[in-house]
Design goal:
The complex is a heterotrimer of chains A (about 350), B (about 375) and C (about 110). Chain A has about 350 residues and is an alpha+beta fold. Chain A is built from eight helices and 15 strands. Chain A has a seven-stranded mixed beta sheet. Chain A has a five-stranded mixed beta sheet with strand order 1-2-7-5-6, covered by helices on one side. Classes of the chains: A alpha+beta (about 350), B alpha/beta (about 375), C alpha+beta (about 110). At the B-C interface, helix 1, helix 2, helix 5, helix 6 and helix 8 of B face strand 1, strand 4, strand 5, helix 1 and helix 3 of C.
Chain lengths: ~350, ~375, ~110
């Protein structure tokens, strides 16, 4: 019998960092899940899997939603659960057709809370044009589920005219961002109340599919790669890109859109907007001859007015992300190990 | 952002860099130490080394209160919080610092009540909100932060809040600078002085650096233009063979310091006879503890503390890197056994420690671009 | 030790003159003014905030002076070199000396 594949994941126990979307998460996925579940050479791990069903390729993805507090300015866990999965499919070049949803509920959860979230999901699904086709529910003891955990699994069909592949990325390609970063993560951080800051900020949770569709229509043949920068922030997604294409991602600091309040909170707490989670934005790499058409199409689409070219692909620094300033300074932007923590030093 | 954006204006930064290149010339090599971890962080964050000339070498000083905290002190603090009625409260900076049995966050994963606070006053608030628990604030920081801890303790005493204590690891900056200057391998020409510590202690405490050690020191702000202007001022002094204390950060640093802050510190704290600094060894009169009048709020007096001493592996060359004798990548463990994810020594533990900052910002840049900056 | 950010005082608490609401480009928090006893800040003043405490008032005048100095960097030298280029008598000043005079107060606050 062939021997079991070796596990490269050496941590003795699971820590919070392993769920934060950064380096520790990557080690867990690549070191434990991938060798045991995905076979020997799974290729780059993207947001959705492409599965061939009788000759037709469908996109398949799943995501769990664990958030505290359950509701926050701009949304709630129900909306995140729908939009998050719709977005994973969108940035894989697919339109979401149907979702199934699992609830893990904590005994003692008030029905009114559950009802509010289910209504939020129904609204978000209607707005995203996706059908909720079924689901499952489990209830666990009080104290075991932080009120509720939601998992959504989505299937969709690939849009025509786009073929995403990190190995097709070339030096000279442009890096595009759909809008301001950091809104969601900072909103959640402030909503927890532990740091006692207030700001007029909302989560950016929304379906990015309409923007992706507009992009593909205008620039489809030139779209090489897309990702939605959720936990771990844009820094994590761009580092994955750099690693998967083997080239350098060079960002222009002055071009990266960040709302004032997000900037203020990050300065006060010593955080970098590039490491903060987003729930309504996406990154794309576009061939240079299509970049103008891409930005114009997004600017005309609802919710795309703040889209920007924020950088470009170069040979160096190969496999890394570099951010540059107008005066000639630069630094490497790495993935974090775990969640970004406020600092005072 | 007012008082921030002006000091990040790209055109003025380029102009300042050009002035530095002009002043520095090519003949002489200049070694400048920025004392404070916040300056180290700013230098990397703004990519300032890219625009300074090759003959200006920046050496990172010991002003990182997380880095110089001995592991035994973390163990002691965490052992107090093993009691399920104790809430361990600390700044985010402390949360991933490893103790012998793990970091505060790892202890939290195993069930300890660990909370991140932005302010010592938030820790006191936790005590008010949780009367059946005891909140222990694990205090770190130099003189910038100590007055806030002091004032919080004064408020706790005035309000009679009993379920609150401070595990005090505040340290003072002058003895650290003295330790650097006393080192036989020391090759520094000048200092970029800690701007925020100086809002409390003022500029006078640095006079001996100029008078006795003959080194110029400029008290500097933290924006790129502040740091670059400080380098300009240091170059002027060095070229004229002068050595004096100058205040670049005039918009917030008063020459005489902050009397109210100093009074608060004096009311609550006294100097420990000696304290261990990770990487530097024992330094006398370099750290603060609570006075007897605040014994009820002193975690070390209210709880029995193991007093564990943990020595770093001999191979970790933190002391030499701290003093500027070695560059981070010259330590044998750098990037191999010792990384930000798995720190062995003090300077890799905090993101502003020399080795962590170098690793995160510089090292990979050097490896992939083939460029090595001198500093 | 070092992360301190400028913020604008929005209001002082009516029942506690040491408690103020401060604004940093739209982010707000209660901070403690207890470390500033002389010349208490009033709404509209800017303070330097560290761990929820105001460390110092920010002097708008000093900030403006500093910006002016920074804008003039290199210009004094350039002017002197131009004059020297004409070979004029008395224009043989050391450029750094000239620059030094124009750094406000920096050289005047000598260590006593």
């Amino acid at each position: 019998m062939p021997s079991d594949p070796p596990i490269r994941f050496r941590d003795p126990q699971i820590e919070m960092a392993h769920g934060a979307g950064g380096k520790a998460s990557r080690r867990l996925v690549e070191g434990l899940f991938a060798p045991l579940l995905f076979g020997n050479n799974p290729g780059p791990l993207g947001d959705a899997a492409l599965v061939d069903i009788g000759g037709t390729k469908i996109a398949l993805t799943t995501d769990s939603f664990v958030v505290k507090p359950l509701t926050f300015p701009g949304g709630s866990i129900g909306e995140l659960a729908v939009n998050g999965t719709v977005n994973d499919l969108a940035v894989s070049g697919a339109k979401a057709d149907a979702l199934v949803v699992t609830f893990v509920l904590e005994a003692g959860l008030p029905t009114s809370v559950l009802e509010a979230e289910v209504r939020a999901m129904a609204r978000a699904a209607k707005e995203a044009g996706v059908r909720v086709a079924g689901g499952d529910t489990k209830v666990v003891e009080h104290g075991k589920a932080d009120q509720m955990y939601i998992t959504t699994t989505g299937v969709g069909h690939l849009l025509r005219g786009v073929a995403l592949d990190p190995s097709s990325v070339r030096p000279g390609d442009k890096v595009l961002l759909s809008g301001p970063i950091g809104d969601h993560g900072i909103t959640i951080l402030l909503a927890r109340g532990e740091l006692d800051f207030q700001a007029d900020l909302r989560s950016d949770t929304r379906s990015v599919f309409p923007l992706v569709e507009a992009l593909v229509r205008a620039a489809g043949p030139g779209v090489r790669w897309m990702r939605d920068p959720t936990r771990g922030g844009a820094a994590t997604s761009l580092n994955e890109l750099a690693r998967d294409c083997g080239l350098g991602v060079v960002l222009f600091e002055e071009k990266i859109p960040v709302r004032d309040a997000v900037r203020g909170a990050c300065e006060l707490l010593g955080l970098d907007p590039l490491h903060i989670a987003n729930e309504g934005q996406f990154l794309a790499v576009i061939a240079p001859e299509y970049a103008d058409a891409a930005i114009n199409a997004l600017a005309l689409a609802p919710g795309g007015s703040e889209a920007q070219v924020i950088g470009e692909i170069r040979e160096q620094p190969a496999g890394s992300v570099l951010i540059t300033t107008l005066y000639g300074g630069s630094r490497i932007i790495d993935m974090l190990v775990g969640d970004p923590l406020p600092r005072i030093c | 952002m007012k008082f921030v954006d002006e000091f990040r204006e790209p055109e003025l930064i380029s102009k300042a860099a050009e002035e530095i290149r002009h002043l520095a010339g090519t003949e002489r090599h200049y070694c400048m130490m920025e004392v404070c971890g916040g300056h180290t962080h700013a230098i990397y964050r703004f990519g300032l080394k890219d625009i300074l000339p090759e003959n200006i070498e920046l050496i990172h000083g010991p002003g990182c209160p997380v880095c110089v905290l001995p592991m035994g002190r973390i163990d002691d603090g965490l052992s107090i919080a093993q009691d399920e009625n104790v809430i361990f409260a600390a700044f985010g900076d402390m949360m991933r610092v490893p103790g012998t049995l793990g970091s505060p966050l790892e202890h939290k994963a195993r069930g300890m009540d660990v909370r991140i606070v932005y302010s010592p006053s938030d820790a006191l608030k936790l005590a008010r909100l949780n009367p059946e628990k005891h909140v222990m604030f694990f205090a770190i920081g130099f003189e910038t932060t100590a007055p806030s801890t002091a004032l919080t303790l004064m408020r706790a005493k005035a309000e009679g809040i009993r379920n609150f204590s401070v595990f005090c690891n505040h340290v003072t900056i002058i003895p650290a600078i003295r330790a650097i200057l006393d080192s036989p391998d020391m090759r520094l020409d000048a200092f970029i002085g800690p701007g925020h510590v100086s809002t409390v202690i003022g500029c006078r405490p640095y006079e001996w650096i100029a008078k006795n050690a003959g080194k110029p020191i400029v008290i500097s702000g933290f924006e790129p233009l502040d740091i670059l202007q400080s380098v300009v001022m240091l170059l002027h002094q060095l070229k004229k063979g002068e050595a004096k204390v100058e205040n670049q950060y005039k918009r917030v640093v008063p020459w005489e310091g902050n009397p109210a802050a100093l009074r608060a510190m004096n009311e609550v704290f006294e100097l420990r006879p000696y304290f261990e600094w990770r990487g530097l060894g024992f330094i006398s009169q370099s750290a603060l503890r609570l006075r007897d009048s605040y014994a009820q709020w002193d975690a070390e007096q209210r709880f029995s503390v193991p007093g564990i001493r943990v020595t770093d592996p001999k191979a970790a060359q933190c002391g030499e890197v701290l003093k500027g004798v070695l560059k981070p990548h010259q330590c044998k463990l750098f990037g191999r056994e010792c990384t930000p994810e798995r720190p062995v020594g003090a300077l890799m533990v905090s993101s502003e420690g020399s080795c962590a900052a170098y690793f995160n910002y510089e090292h990979r840049k050097a490896m992939v671009t083939g460029l090595t900056s001198i500093a | 030790m070092c992360l301190a950010i400028p913020g604008k005082i929005v209001e002082i608490a009516p029942d506690n003159r040491d408690s103020a609401l401060v604004d940093v480009v739209g982010v707000r928090r209660r901070i403690d003014l207890g470390l500033i006893q002389d010349d208490k800040p009033v709404p509209g003043d800017w303070v330097l905030i560290h761990v929820g405490f105001a460390m110092s008032k920010i002097s708008e005048q000093d900030a403006t002076d500093q910006m002016n100095t920074l804008r003039m960097l290199g210009e004094i030298d350039g002017a002197v070199q131009e004059v020297q280029g004409y070979g004029l008598e008395g224009a043989q000043q050391d450029p750094q000396e000239v620059g030094q005079e124009d750094l406000p107060e920096a050289s005047q606050e000598k260590v006593q």
